[in-house]
Amino acid sequence: MTNEQRQEGTILALDTSTASMAAAIVSGQEVLAEIQTLAERNHSVHVVTHIKDMLLKSGISDTDIEAIAVGNGPGSYTGMRIAVSVAKTLAWVWDKPLIGVSSLEALAYGAWHRHSEDKAEQGNTLEGEHWVLPIMDARRGQVYSSGFSMAAGTEWSRWLDDGVRLMKDFVDLLEQRLAEQKGRVLSLSLVGDLTLHEQEAARLKQVGEAAGVAVRLQPFIQEGQWIARLGRIRLEAGMVEDPHTFIPNYTQLTEAEVVWKAKQAGEAKA
User: Fold this and answer.
1) Most buried residue, 1, 55, 64, 229, by most Cβ within 10 Å?
2) Which string of b and e fits 153-172 if b means at least 16 CB within 10 Å?
3) What distances in angstroms separate CA 98 from CA 79, 91, 93, 175, one per listed residue?
4) Could you list the mean pLDDT of each consecutive 10-residue stretch along the chain, which spans 270 residues?
């Protein structure tokens, strides 16, 4: 690792909120190492080994790491806790700043930049306002979702909080929002794992095109480098977490909590 890379600062990033374990080591604009595996049930078994492999591949040690960025959900209840637990432990042991990054935002941010690279190759412009809408399946017709906007190809902002919503309701919300914007939105991209929500995704495409908006349905799997890049932005803004108290964004109750609360409510009525 060069002195210049050390000066720029190096971010270790990881996310296990989905079926993909995404991890990366990023220094400045350079991805020194990156791993993406699709083995949700084995995240806890392999995550530490993968981190060691990335450190070895990139030729750096923990002393070269400036900060640790972790996807804090929403997403798989068990999955989120794996990455967050590892990140908290490393931040404490290595005495490094810990940064939490929305897994949904990283999904949207990565998909947008991958698409913008393609458009640049085609010689197209990125002017105007474009929506990026990440989704993750939350079962029973629900999705974890949020909304982001890229204006003129440079200004990234959030306009809808992370939350769990029925996919049907999410599309209805977007239809209403598009009507309110009155032609200001040039395009929208629905990104993430779309396989379980193809019918509503197709309806969104119809809704968008009826409003004169170009719609892109973009399957995209989480990549660790975007956790790192968003982590860098948050680090520079001083948005650092306490590793002793930091918890994932669970968004909704687990099934066990739902059953327990229902039982408590029943006992209270008795």
Assistant:
1) 229
2) eeebeeebebbbbbbeebbb
3) 18, 6, 12, 37
4) 55 92 94 85 75 94 96 89 94 97 97 79 60 95 96 86 95 95 91 96 96 95 96 96 93 50 55
